[in-house]
Amino acid sequence: MQTLMRITAIKLTAIIFLLGLSFFSHAKDINCKGKVTAVMDYPTYCDGGYAFITTGSNGKWICPASDKGNAIVLAALAANKSVDVYINNNNDAITCQTLPSYVKSRYIIIRS
Question: 3-class DSSP state for residue 31?
Fold first, then answer.
């Protein structure tokens, strides 16, 4: 019985550790949110996908991470909706004001 309790405690500790690790892995993402102001097809820089600019990206182009991200960007542009665009900040090396062009987003959320 005591062995079973130890195993359960170890499993719970591992789950809590992994959840905490997951939280901190996205803590360094920046959100260059805003309205989508432009979309272009630029397969050379965006792995065959689109590039887009938001009002929060300081005029720099962002590449969606997937075809689904491409669809979200087009839907936001067509519906005049805002998007949250999360980008890895490379250990505080970049901000939305200092984005390089054609940076890949981690994920995109469309807002109402």
Answer: strand
